[in-house]
Specification:
This protein is of the alpha/beta class. The protein has a single domain, classed as Rossmann fold. It has helices spanning about 5-15, 15-25, 35-40, 55-70, 85-90, 105-120, 155-160, 180-190, 200-210, 230-245, 250-260; strands at about 75-80, 100-105, 125-130, 140-145, 165-180, 215-230, 270-285. The protein has a seven-stranded mixed β-sheet with strand order 3-2-1-4-5-7-6. The two termini are about 20 Å apart.
């Protein structure tokens, strides 16, 4: 195939890691989801996701895929970054030598500690820290990170890759995240629906491809369903709307809250989000050839 000089230049650019890093770069503190506040507020009902059959099935399959690929081993150390309440850490602990579970939210980690105590699991070390400021003193056989905004910055993703001795597993959005009630609010009160600008697993795959590590991706599509109080629903939605760039005045906030009150049934609001999620598995011992 013959390429013009301009096309060759473009192709050469997109086949370099720096091209993808520039696309992912963001200013410090731009996303409210990078801050502790949000996670502290939602910690109490975070595990409601586990009541969704799709989430449970996806989680079980991802763990099964890790086992099939050799990423879980009785002699391995496992680093669960942005572990939340430890949904993965608790299930993986019996399959490895030791789990290191890191999260920014004390409230999330307190729930993890309760789970560990109930299950009498003693090989999990809980670390309260912001990954962006944390500097591990060692590497880990398998590094795992799931559904966290730190994955939007490829510089942070590269740091994760660098501390993985054998495997890096990343779970994140894959182009579909449609919350029907949130979109109804956007249309009603802002007159439009702004797309989510997070390229998700696609960006990460392309970056590692240019590094010579084309990850193996498995996709999952289904619905996240939640049943939460109005306060919890609005807290989540307000963060999402703000991150999309909407300005929410006090008057508009009151209007939206009144709108949500109409959706309440027995003190709760049910929300449904259609999602597509990708799990990417990188075996560092199997470097590809570009």
């Amino acid at each position: 195939m013959n390429f013009s000089k301009k096309k060759k230049l473009s192709l050469n650019e997109i086949l370099t890691p720096s091209f993808w890093v520039k696309l992912s770069s963001q200013k410090e503190g731009v996303s409210p989801f990078l801050k502790k506040d949000f996670w502290e507020v939602i910690a109490s009902d975070y595990d409601a996701l586990e009541e969704t059959s799709f989430y449970r099935a996806m989680q079980e399959d991802i763990i099964s895929e890790m086992e099939k690929r050799g990423a879980l081993n009785k002699n391995f150390t496992f680093f669960d970054v942005a572990c939340g309440t430890g949904n993965y850490s608790v299930k993986i602990a019996p399959k490895v030598s030791k789990v290191y579970a890191l999260d920014i939210s004390p409230a999330m980690l307190n729930l993890l500690k309760e789970k560990l105590k109930r299950a009498n699991i003693q090989n999990v070390e809980v670390i309260e820290a912001d990954w962006r400021k944390y500097r591990p003193e060692r590497n880990f056989d398998t590094v795992f990170v799931s559904m966290t905004p730190i994955l939007r910055d490829l510089k942070e993703v590269k740091r994760l890759f660098d501390i993985a001795e054998k495997f890096l597993i990343i779970v994140t959005w894959a182009g579909l995240r449609k919350n029907f009630l949130l979109e109804e609010i956007e249309k009603t009160f802002f007159g439009k629906i702004k797309p989510d600008k997070n390229p998700g697993i696609l960006l990460i795959f392309n970056y590692f491809y240019t590094l010579g590590y084309p990850g193996d991706i498995k996709f999952y599509e289904g619905f996240f369903e939640r049943r939460s109080t109005l306060e919890k629903v609005w807290t989540r939605f307000k963060f999402r709307l703000t991150s999309k760039g909407y300005k929410i005045s006090k008057r508009k906030e009151r209007q939206i809250i009144d709108f949500l009150k109409e959706k309440e049934k027995n003190g709760y609001i049910e929300t449904k989000t259609q999602v597509r999620i990708g799990a990417m598995f990188i075996n560092k011992e199997k470097k590809g050839v570009l």
